[in-house]
């Protein structure tokens, strides 16, 4: 049985991801590491701090020690730490948004990025640009920061969060060929946002597909 260690910086995404694991990785052991102080510290500082970086790398190393065949980084805000850790940790690390951003950069010229936090928006934009550079094609990125949505959510008003996100998407959709949802927790809004008439890409399903592909390729290589 293959082992996948999924690292979360908050509680919100872990439960919805379980159905995706059951569908795509039914024969894998899924080990979950959750430290919700991580995203709290990132939001408070407005960036990924050295302390957050050290803790995350330690979690990745813990995953490798658990015998992980793959480590799944589920938080876009700290995805660049996952890239850094690839040269340190003795287990392959998959970013949840790698496949999503590659698909967006390969298919579309104008990409709207929706996020409720600047700490997620900026890393996602940087990743999109790097994916486009790899493909050798130009892309235009439209900022879709849904200001106030995160505060509404943590303040216990999910309906207000969704409304702010929808209003932001409506503004961005007129300037973009597709929308990218920078946070995995936004995937539940994908169908609703698709009513705007342009493609909407989210990361959870695509991220787990990338993990599955990595495990299959490793198995064939043996």
TrEMBL record:
Q: Which InterPro entries match?
A: Asp/Glu/hydantoin_racemase, Iso_Racemase_Enz_sf
Annotated Gene3D superfamilies: 3.40.50.12500
Superkingdom of the source?
Answer: Bacteria
Gene Ontology MF terms: amino-acid racemase activity
Q: Which family does it belong to?
A: Belongs to the HyuE racemase family.
Task: Tell me what this protein is called.
Answer: Asp/Glu/hydantoin racemase
**Can you name the source organism?**
Cohnella zeiphila
């Amino acid at each position: 049985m293959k082992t996948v260690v999924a690292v979360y910086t908050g509680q919100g995404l872990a439960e919805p991801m379980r159905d995706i694991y059951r569908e795509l990785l039914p024969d894998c052991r899924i080990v979950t590491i959750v430290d919700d102080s991580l995203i709290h510290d990132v939001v408070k500082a407005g960036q990924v701090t050295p302390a957050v970086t050290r803790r995350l790398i330690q979690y990745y190393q813990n995953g490798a020690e658990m015998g992980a065949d793959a480590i799944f980084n589920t938080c876009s805000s700290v995805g660049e730490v996952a890239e850094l850790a690839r040269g340190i940790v003795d287990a392959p690390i998959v970013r949840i948004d790698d496949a999503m951003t590659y698909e967006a950069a390969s298919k579309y010229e104008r990409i709207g990025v929706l996020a409720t936090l600047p700490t997620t928006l900026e890393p996602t934009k940087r990743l999109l640009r790097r994916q486009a550079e790899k493909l050798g094609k130009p892309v235009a990125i439209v900022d879709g920061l849904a200001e106030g949505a995160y505060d509404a959510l943590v303040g216990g008003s999910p309906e207000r969060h969704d409304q702010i996100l929808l209003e932001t998407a409506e503004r961005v959709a007129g300037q973009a060929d597709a929308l990218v949802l920078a946070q995995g927790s936004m995937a539940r809004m994908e169908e609703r946002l698709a009513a705007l008439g342009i493609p909407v890409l989210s990361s959870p399903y695509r991220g787990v597909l990338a993990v599955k592909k990595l495990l299959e390729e490793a198995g064939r290589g043996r």
